[in-house]
Amino acid sequence: MLDAQEAMSIGIVAIGRNEGDRLKACLQSAIAQVSKSHIVYVDSGSTDDSVAWAGALAITVLNLDLSIPFTAARARNAGFNYLCSQFPALKYVQFVDGDCFLEPTWCQQAHHV
After folding, report:
1. What is the per-residue pLDDT across 47-71, written as a single tens digit (0 to 9) for each?
2. In the chain, what are the domains?
3. I want to staple 54 with a disulfide (CB 3.0 to 4.6 A). Which of 3, 28, 41, 63 is the partner?
């Protein structure tokens, strides 16, 4: 298990669009490993409850501008830039797609490599 200081050194960028229950599993797996304040969900125009659900978890949500074409790279960069601006002392950033989840000990294992 990561101690509090280690958990604060990691940020997580989750990206997605209309992921539904998959996003819920993704964000819960992130919350189990790092501070909620260090998790950002970048949404690419969802029409389901993805944005509301992430917001209800007190996770920062970034909504991409709908007038610019969506790409996974654009979403990841937006999340990365947000985390770097808010938490300049971060040592690591984990990217995860909203239809995936982090294995329960992933951040701990990666941090100690």
Report:
1. 999 999 999 999 999 999 999 999 9
2. 4-111 (3.90.550.10)
3. 41
